[in-house]
C-alpha cells in the first residue's frame, strides 16, 4: 500500500486449517481366504492411491504375514478409507498406535 509516497507494509495473518491432528492410528488389512491378490491390489490403488508396486508389495505382506499396515494417520482421517475398503469386502480395521 502506498500512502503519500510512503510505503507501508501490512502483515496479514492467515489462519490455516490444521488437518491430520489427533491420536495417531494405523489402518490394517488382514488376510482372508476369499479376496484375490488382484482385487486387494486394485482396492489399495483405488482407495488409498498407492502405486501399483506398493500395492503389490502390501498384498504379499498381507498374505504371508497375515496383516499389514497400509496407512498411518489420525483415526478420523483413516475412517473413510477403512469404510471404503470394508465395503469392497476387505478385512480392514483401525488400531490406535500405542505410545
Number of self-contained structural domains? 1
Order of helices and strands: EEEHHEHE
Q: What is the fold named in CATH at topology level?
A: Ribosomal Protein L30, Chain: A
CATH architecture: 2-Layer Sandwich
Q: How does the helix and strand content classify structurally?
A: alpha+beta
Parts with pLDDT < 50 across at least 5 consecutive residues: none
Q: Give the strand order, joined by hyphens, for the main sheet.
A: 4-3-5
Structure annotation, total helices: 3
Give the proportion of residues in helices. 25-40%
Overall, the morphology is: globular
The biggest beta sheet reads: 3 strands, antiparallel
Name of the CATH homologous superfamily: Ribosomal protein L7/L12, C-terminal domain/Adaptor protein ClpS
CATH top level is Alpha Beta
Q: Would you count the extended β strands for me?
A: 5
Distance between the termini: 50 Å
β-sheet strand percentage: 25-35%
Give the rounded overall mean pLDDT: 86
- As a whole number of angstroms, the C-alpha radius of gyration is 21 Å
